[in-house]
Every structure is written in structure tokens, then in C-alpha cells.
UniProtKB/TrEMBL annotation:
Enzyme nomenclature, EC number: 2.1.1.354
Naturally occurring in which organism (per UniProt): Sander lucioperca
A UniProt-annotated Pfam family: SET
Enzyme category, top tier: transferase
Start and end residues of each MYND-type domain: 51-89
Superkingdom: Eukaryota
Protein name per UniProt: [histone H3]-lysine(4) N-trimethyltransferase
GO cellular component: nucleus
Catalytic reaction list: L-lysyl(4)-[histone H3] + 3 S-adenosyl-L-methionine = N(6),N(6),N(6)-trimethyl-L-lysyl(4)-[histone H3] + 3 S-adenosyl-L-homocysteine + 3 H(+)
Length: 437
């Protein structure tokens, strides 16, 4: 609980509600606190790669003898996870290929089971529960409400045998809380591993000029300073990707978190000019042309996401995705500089498609165009920058370009030592990678 963490206190943050602030100085890279997950779930796509209980990645994981679908480091982790895994184990066997709850439904099922276990174990003791985190159920639009209703239907279908489910209104509130306060657990390259709820971390407010960063060690969240902090400073994280200009960031904050940021960066929009840089031409490009291209870029990004979802469902081939990236880059490149964030966005997507198609040379070609602008446009110690250096470094090493590969990995390490801490196992593995030839 937050009250027991030295150097931090809860307070009423003006215009934001509850928040956290420091009561002693913290230096860049210093750990403010580590928080175990209240509840967590491993993504189905990562089963077999990570232990379901501790999220350790290793070869030779032991398979659950009953469902044959969950994997563990050994007996200790399997026993530790049984209270949660039993919600799914028999159901996966019974439903077979028809077992398809969303990741959110799986997490909510575990939250409900955890709450029941807590009440049975210590009914009189006050515990920091998910009830303390914010809900915006009244603000949800029709599209999100339909998704939530689908998730609730899945909860009833796949989990009602092992759970006493609350009434519909309470479920709507709980799903809203998870939507607003759930955290995506990511690996060192920012690939999705699972989802979790951390009530203590959920107390931290947003800023586009964050003072801390959240990283993960197994299923625990770690909060480290990315700025020197003095007593009384509020602890602030970013809820969103900070690459984009002010209007885009606030559109996303309103869509998912129901507020508009009032930080200094949002008030001054001081980085927007660099983020929306246009191509230099002998005759200046008219503002209307630029505005039209911005609208085109936003529309293309939305369409790409839809096509990507179709590709993940094996409907659209990857080659169509790459063609869409290349066409949009040609179109936008007539107006935008290569360092414009919309150009960078589509280059990043193209790099991802090349990686999926096992085209390392294509991935490197896009990655090399991305990395320098990323380093300038993102804040210091950004995981987006370190993950890009990691990807490039590993691609170089795979092509036996060891010198340039080690150089990229060292740049990733410099950021990760601050964001993850020097003793994190990601850093231990990275040091080993840099010596392999």
C-alpha cells in the first residue's frame, strides 16, 4: 500500500483528483517503488514462451497436464498460479477451439476471483482494492459499450462455472475501471506480453512531460525517475505515446481516459513544429495543402490499423500492408519531411511488416530512417527509442555486422539502465548478446 512506501505520499492534485508526490529527493534512474500486480494475465499469443505465473521467458517450460495449454517454470509456479488458472483450465478443454474470451474478460475473471479470496481470508482487514481506482462508465461511447457488452457476454459464457458474477451494472463499472487503469506488460522491445492492474501505480497522474517511467520485472511494475525530483514534486507518467503532436495526444487522452492534458508542453505546443515538419521547397507549401495532408495521414493510420487487424485474422496478406505503407509514404512525402511524425509512423509500421516477412534488410532500411528523429522527438530515456536501438542492434548482429550491432545495443543499454535499473535481467541478457559472435 502506498502509505507504507517511504518517500511518497498521496495528495489531492489540483484539477486531477488523487495523485502521488515525493517527500524526499530522487535522482534520475532511482527506483521510487515496485508494485506487485493486483491481478495479471499472460497474453494467449505468448503461451509457451513465458511462464504463466512469473512471466519468465525460457526454453523447456513445463506444460499443464490437464489442459496442455498453459506453461510454467516448474511445480512451484504451477501451484502458485492454480487459483487463477483453474478458472480457465477445464473450460479450455471443454470448449476447445470455441474457447475465445478477450484478454480483458480473462483479467476481469481473475480480479473477481482475487476479490473473493481476499474477502474470505481477511474480511475485517482493509486492503487496497480495485474499487479505489477510477471508473468512467458514464462517459463510454456506444462503440466501447458494445465491446464491453461483448466482453461481459464472454465472461458469462466462459467463466460462470467457477465464478459468482456480480450484477450487470457492477460488471460495467469493473470493465470500465480495467479499461482506464489496466497496464500492458511489455518486453524489452515493447511487444505485448499481458495485461495487469496495479492500484498503486494507477494513482499516478498523466503528463506529456513525465517525471517517472513504468517498466516491468516479471509481473511487478517498477517506477523509476527520469528527471531529478525534489520534495513536493508530483509523480507523473505518460499514459500515451508521446511522439505525436498536441492535438493528436489530447484526442487520444479524451478517447481513452476522458480528460485533456494541461501540462506545459500541451499549453505551448513547443514541439509541434518539429513533429509536423514539412519538406523544404522553393515555393512554400500552402497551409491548406498541409492541413489536407494531415487529415490524409490520420485517415491512413486508422485504415492501416483495420487492415492490420484483418491480417492478424489471416484475411489480408502482409504484402498488402507493406504496399499500403509504401504508397502512403510516397503520398505524404510530397509534403512532409522524412522526420515528420506521420512519416515516422508509417515507416515504423513498414519495419514491423518487414520483420514479420523475415526481411531484415528491409527492416533495417526503415529502422535507420527512424532512429535519429526518434532520439530527438521523444523525451530522454524513452523506451520507444531503446526498443528501436534493440531491434536494429539485433538485426545487425543477425547479419554478422557485429561492430555496428554492438554500437546500437550500447545505446539501448544506456537508456535501459535508467528505465529498468542496472540489475534488471534484460540488461544481464543484453550484456551477453553483445559478446556473442
Amino acid at each position: 500500500m502506498m502509505g507504507s512506501i517511504e518517500g511518497l505520499e498521496r495528495f489531492d492534485s489540483p484539477g486531477k483528483g488523487r495523485g502521488l508526490r515525493v517527500t524526499r529527493p530522487f535522482k534520475v534512474g532511482e527506483l521510487l517503488f515496485s508494485s506487485p500486480a493486483y491481478s495479471f494475465v499472460l497474453s494467449l499469443s505468448e503461451r509457451g514462451c513465458y511462464c504463466e505465473f512469473c512471466f519468465t521467458r525460457k526454453e523447456g517450460l513445463a506444460r499443464c497436464g490437464k489442459c496442455k495449454k498453459a506453461f510454467y517454470c516448474g511445480v512451484k509456479c504451477q501451484k502458485g498460479d492454480w487459483a487463477m488458472h483453474k478458472l480457465e483450465c477445464s473450460a479450455m478443454t471443454a470448449f476447445g477451439e470455441n474457447w475465445c474470451p478477450s484478454e480483458t474478460s480473462r483479467l476481469v475473471a481473475r480480479i473477481l476471483a482475487k476479490k473473493k479470496m481476499q474477502k474470505e481470508r481477511c474480511a475485517s482487514e482493509r486492503i487496497l482494492l480495485i474499487e479505489e481506482i477510477q471508473s468512467h462508465v458514464e462517459d463510454v461511447d456506444n462503440e466501447k459499450r458494445e465491446m464491453t457488452e461483448s466482453d461481459i457476454a464472454g465472461l458469462h459464457r466462459f467463466f460462470s462455472k467457477h465464478l459468482e458474477l456480480p450484477d450487470h451494472k457492477d460488471l460495467l463499472t469493473l470493465f470500465s475501471q480495467v479499461a482506464c487503469n489496466g497496464f500492458t506488460i511489455e518486453d524489452d522491445e515493447l511487444s505485448h506480453m499481458g495485461t495487469a492492474v496495479y492500484p498503486d501505480v494507477a494513482l499516478i497522474n498523466h503528463s506529456c512531460l513525465p517525471s517517472v517511467i513504468v517498466t516491468y520485472k516479471g509481473t511487478s511494475a517498477e517506477v523509476r525517475a527520469v528527471k531529478n525530483m525534489n520534495p513536493g514534486d508530483e509523480v507523473l507518467i505518460s499514459y500515451i505515446d508521446l511522439l505525436y503532436p498536441t492535438d493528436d495526444r489530447n484526442n487520444r487522452l479524451r478517447e481513452f481516459y476522458y480528460f485533456t492534458c494541461q501540462c506545459q508542453e500541451c499549453k505551448t505546443k513547443s514541439s509541434d513544429k518539429a513533429k509536423l515538419k514539412v519538406r523544404k521547397q522553393s515555393d512554400p507549401i500552402e497551409q491548406e495543402v498541409i492541413s489536407n495532408m494531415v487529415r490524409y495521414a490520420r485517415k491512413t493510420i486508422r485504415e492501416f490499423r483495420l487492415k492490420l487487424d484483418a491480417a492478424l485474422d489471416s484475411v489480408a496478406p502482409p504484402s498488402e500492408l507493406l504496399e499500403m505503407c509504401e504508397q502512403s509514404l510516397d503520398e505524404m512525402g510530397a509534403v512532409f519531411d522524412d522526420t515528420n511524425v506521420y512519416m515516422l509512423h508509417m515507416m515504423y509500421q513498414a519495419m514491423g511488416v518487414c520483420l514479420y516477412m523475415q526481411d531484415p534488410d528491409g527492416a533495417i532500411r526503415y529502422g535507420e530512417k527512424i532512429i535519429k528523429p526518434y532520439s530527438k522527438l521523444y523525451p530522454p530515456y524513452s523506451l520507444n527509442v531503446s526498443s528501436m536501438y534493440l531491434k536494429l542492434g539485433r538485426l545487425y548482429m543477425g547479419l554478422e555486422r557485429y561492430s555496428v550491432g554492438v554500437g546500437a545495443l550500447k545505446k539501448a543499454m544506456a537508456i535501459m539502465e535508467v528505465a529498468h535499473g542496472r540489475d534488471h535481467f534484460y540488461l544481464t541478457e543484453l550484456r551477453k548478446e553483445m559478446t556473442r559472435k
